[in-house]
Write a structure and sequence with these properties.
There is one protein chain. The chain is of the alpha+beta class and 715 residues long. It is 27% helix and 27% strand. It is built from 20 helices and 29 strands. The strands form six sheets. Strands 1, 2, 3, 4, 5, 6, 7, 8, 9, 10, 13 and 14 form a twelve-stranded mixed sheet that branches. It is elongated and about 120 Å long. About 3% of the residues have low confidence.
Length: 715
């Protein structure tokens, strides 16, 4: 029979939990105290015939004594421990770390998936598997869950928070969450499970991953140098996403604690300061087994739960594979309202007849989670050649245990087809120096000069970051962007490329730096460390941070700016169209094009208008003109709107005006009702258009074209 913890330490803890002394147990067993002491100090173990008597004395079954994979149910029960108010009278209006993030399931997905990547068990070569389960509870299912979390014990604390809600932001959120549960009779649970991860290892209080997540703030204990997180703030998104401030945890450990690995359970509640029955409470509370070593056995610690308990708490895991399950109680997604253009007071019924205010729309949560995972973690989910994916993700949605939306595995090739193609080509060694055919991936190394630490002048070394460029597809989203990533292969920085050459085809680019460029790449470790220090808590860009200043210098961020300049220059060189060889058709077509321009056109005293600076055109299959034009923009905060006019050149009389069939912005501008409005700070703009053939008075091949920019509506 498999056993868990050694008998001596297990028995010592059971005596504490049940409030028995060694002498009392010895008396019940009819043995000497020395015999019991020998068991506890591991000098001997009881005979099999004595095991049954020990089970009776502890109020448990013989199997529990033999396996020792859980605590007995005798003694102190699982309960909520609320931290007492500060002796000096200080008050906290909530956990400040939670205010670093919005109540947004897409932010939650980014932070939790990053944490799971950081804790992946890399030795076996398998990816970490992360599953998000949205589960709406109503009716008796909701009632059973409230009983499982000991709601009656919590109610006075929530009532106290609601009374003071008008004075506290956290209190208002909590009050709304409680009212939603009771008035609308529903509660949304959002569970994040990871598998093939380290789990919350370590002691309840000493340094370790468990204490860093459950007990402490602003502490980050990551497993590797390429980890994404460094601030210890990401875990706060779990509590920020809960309208009730409650998260329950069930962890399967990769390293045994107290001789066991499965069903290590605890809950943490984040509320503001409150007074209940005249007793002040500081804020946080923990659901667990009272720790007999704490004063008065009041502090709650994690406990080894049985299968029935984790099932009642909706924390049952699929397997004994190491990892952690976080259950967000009362999940809400306030950010979805802004995205959907909804109103906080607007209520609608979904197709199942459940009234929703928008923040707890389980279908919208499902859709937004899938979208965020594909957008931010496409690279971590992509493999090729000898490189295996680091991550697998999926989302499913339930109501009272019944499937609302089937489990959906996130496919990076569907979410980011161009970028996954580029990364796979790099892994498989099929990149080219320059693209000559559709679908090819161009590869170029870009120098990243790393500074010396400690404010010293000079360069530590040059890290060759890897730049990949390929054709864009509609499913990629915004075209002509560079996605930058490092070791954990989460998209960190997204940026456009300004000043692109005229007539560039849409593309997507990927920059691999640090370990993402390859562990054997020169200075990969140093680049990884530098870029990690250059990320803010949101991990959505590289730039100036306090850590970068303290460890390197106040000008260290300029190295990143230089890298960006090098990347943009390389992209422009890779996407530029090759020079035309000057065949028969090109000169004829160029002779048929005229850029309508005047010397230094002005509008008002000292104001120079935008002017056309380049023009390319082809004749389409239907006989339409297809035009790409570049506009040179003067310096100025507010540039006037301009209307592009396409005219036929004639020897005498007014020039006939052609209509636009299509007019679209490419870079540095937007098109509104046929008018160009230029982006602030841009120095050049590019737009494309095609003429309406029905407005042509003669065949296109018999005409000469003039393109003009006119101020305002072009009248």
């Amino acid at each position: 029979m498999d056993t868990g913890e050694e008998f001596g330490p297990w028995l010592a803890r059971q005596l504490k939990l049940s409030g028995k002394t060694q002498a009392e147990l010895a008396e019940e067993l009819g043995l000497t105290r020395a015999a019991v002491s020998a068991w506890i100090t591991k000098r001997s173990v009881p005979r099999p015939t004595v095991m049954g008597e020990i089970a009776k004395a502890l109020g448990t079954d013989i199997g529990t004594v033999h396996t020792r994979t859980t605590d007995t149910q005798a003694g102190l029960p699982v309960t909520w421990y609320h931290r007492p108010g500060y002796p000096d009278g200080g008050r906290d209006g909530g956990n400040a770390a939670a205010f670093a993030f919005d109540a947004d399931v897409q932010v939650l997905a980014r932070e939790t998936c990053q944490n799971s990547l950081d804790e992946r068990l890399a030795e076996n070569g398998r990816p970490v598997r992360v599953r998000y389960t949205i589960h709406e509870l109503t009716g008796e299912t909701l009632g059973a869950f409230r009983r499982a979390i000991l709601w009656d014990d919590l109610h006075p604390h929530y009532a106290a928070v609601s009374e003071a809600a008008s004075h506290q932001k956290v209190g208002r959120v909590v009050d709304a969450g409680v009212r939603d549960m009771f008035e609308k009779g529903r509660l949304v649970l959002l569970r994040v499970d990871d598998y093939n991860a380290s789990g919350l290892t370590g002691d309840d209080y000493d340094d370790g991953k468990f204490a860093a997540v459950v007990r402490r703030q602003l502490e980050s204990l990551k497993s590797g140098s390429g980890a994404g997180g460094s601030y210890g703030l990401g875990k706060a998104t779990l509590w920020a996403t809960s309208a009730l401030g409650m998260v329950l945890i069930n962890s399967t450990l990769s390293v045994p604690h107290e001789g066991r690995t499965e069903r290590r359970v605890i809950g943490r509640l984040e509320l503001p300061w409150r007074s209940v029955d005249g007793q002040p409470y500081a804020g946080p509370a923990w659901l667990g087994r009272p720790d007999p070593d704490s004063p008065g056995a009041q502090v709650a610690r994690s406990w080894w739960a049985d299968e029935e308990t984790v099932e009642n708490l909706h924390l049952t895991r699929d397997s004994d594979e190491p990892g952690t399950s976080f259950l967000i109680v009362g999940a809400h997604d306030v950010a979805s309202l802004e995205q959907n253009g909804s109103d906080n007071d607007a209520e609608a019924e979904d197709e199942d007849g459940v009234v929703d205010d928008g923040t707890r729309d389980i279908r919208a949560m499902h859709r937004r989670l899938v979208e965020a995972l594909g957008r931010d973690f496409w690279a971590a989910m992509t493999g090729g050649g000898t490189r295996l994916p680091l991550l697998e993700t999926s989302v499913r949605t339930l109501r009272n245990g019944q499937v609302v939306i089937e489990e959906e595995k996130v496919d990076p090739t569907a979410a980011q087809p161009s970028r996954t193609r580029a990364l796979r080509a790099y892994y498989e060694g099929t990149t080219v120096e320059r693209r000559t055919e559709a679908g090819q991936v161009a590869c170029r190394t870009v120098p990243f000069k790393l500074p010396l630490a400690g404010g010293r002048r000079g360069t530590l070394g040059t890290h060759p970051a890897v730049l990949l460029v390929t054709d864009a597809e509609d499913a990629d989203g915004v075209p002509n962007q560079v996605h930058s990533l490092r070791g954990n292969r989460m998209t960190i920085k997204k940026s456009g490329v300004s000043g692109l050459p005229l007539g560039v085809n849409s593309f997507q680019a990927v920059l691999l730096a640090g370990h993402a460029a390859g562990n054997e790449t020169p200075f990969a470790e140093e680049a990884e460390e530098f870029l990690r220090a250059a990320e803010p808590p949101e991990h959505d860009r590289w730039g100036q941070t306090e850590e970068l200043t303290l460890r390197w210098s106040h000008t260290a961020h300029r190295r990143i700016a230089r890298l960006t300049t090098e990347v943009n220059a390389a992209v422009k060189e890779l996407v530029a169209r090759p020079k035309r060889s000057g065949g028969e058709g090109s000169p004829k077509l160029r002779k048929a094009l005229t850029v309508g321009r005047k010397a230094a056109p002005r509008r008002g005293p000292g104001q120079v208008l935008p002017e056309l600076d380049g023009l390319e055109a082809t004749i389409g299959e239907a006989g339409e003109w297809r035009i790409t034009a570049e506009v040179k923009l003067p310096r100025g905060d507010e540039l006037p709107a301009m209307t592009p006019m396409v005219l036929l050149d004639v020897r005498s009389g007014s020039r006939p005006r052609l209509d636009w069939a299509e007019l679209t912005a490419v870079d540095g501008c937007v098109v509104e009702d046929g008018i160009l409005r230029f982006s602030p700070g841009a120095r050049r703009a590019v737009f494309r258009g095609s003429t309406d053939v029905t407005s042509h008075p003669v065949r296109t091949t018999l005409t000469r074209l003039v393109l003009e920019l006119r101020a305002g509506k072009g009248e």
